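As a representative case, the lines below give one protein's residues and fold tokens.
***
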Amino acid sequence: MQPERITKPIQLLGAWLAGLLTIDASFLFAATKMTSNSWQSGALTVAAIVNVPVFIGALFILQTKFRPELQEDSYYATYLNNKTNQRVRIPKKDAYLEELEARIESLEGSTAEVADDIHGSQLSSLSFGVNVHLENQGAIEEALFEEGVELIRIFGKDVGAPDVARVAVAANMPVQIRNAVFRLARKLGIEHYSIIEPWEEIDEDVLFGAYGDTEGKITHMAT
């Protein structure tokens, strides 16, 4: 780790841990290259062992006695204000960067939650059928339940297994929702798809394990 890239106090602890592992590994490696009865080999082994409790003790002191000093600059400034009743100034650049990082993290979390909600609501509004002969029938039903689908029709009891595992989607299904179904199917190991035409009089929007002709193959799609 380059010293100039350590910008937060907590990163110093990581550098300490990396240093401990490097030093102990070097000591033990050097000890293995010496004869087992030499005093140098024993000294290096003892030093490697002693380094561990010394490091843990130093880490304990940092986390207890010097815990305020390990906080971010803005929090440490607040701590000093409360402790000394003196105003501590933080450079505007540092304060701006910390505020910007916090906003970016908040926006990323909000975006991920919205994407999950949209994806789940898309699939939960559809009607599904699952072929009873599919080997991963249970996994498909569990995946649909996680997407918010509460009712699933089971079909194929009196017909037999389909020639290939495929997912069928309604012809009038919007592209965005259809792609969400294809991503789920690909995740469940189903690579082929077909189209449910309006004249087929099938009530479901999606059929896992559909019969009939294969329309095409699902390519690798981004999740």
Notes: The beta strands are 128-131, 152-155, 166-170, 192-196, 206-208, 216-217. Residues 114-120 have pLDDT under 50 and may be disordered. Residues 39 and 97 are 53 Å apart (CA to CA). DSSP finds six helices and six strands in the chain.
